[in-house]
Amino acid sequence: MPDSRAAAYTRRMDAALLTADGLRLMLREWPVPAPRGTVLILHGLGEHIGRYLHVAARLNECGWSVAGYDQRGHGASDGPRGRLATPHALLDDLGRVVAHVRAAHPGPYVLLGHSLGGLVAARYAAEAFGDASPAAWYRPIDGLVLSSPALDIGMTPAQKLLLALLGPIAPHLALGNGLDPGAVSRDAGVVAAYRADPLVHDRVAPRLVRFMVDAAQVVRARASRWRLPTLLLYAGADRLVVPAGSAAFAAAAPKGTVTAHAYPALYHEVFNEPEQARVFDDLRAWLAARASSAGSAPGKSADLHSITSSPEAST
Question: Domains of the chain, with CATH numbers?
Answer without folding.
Answer: 3-305 (3.40.50.1820)
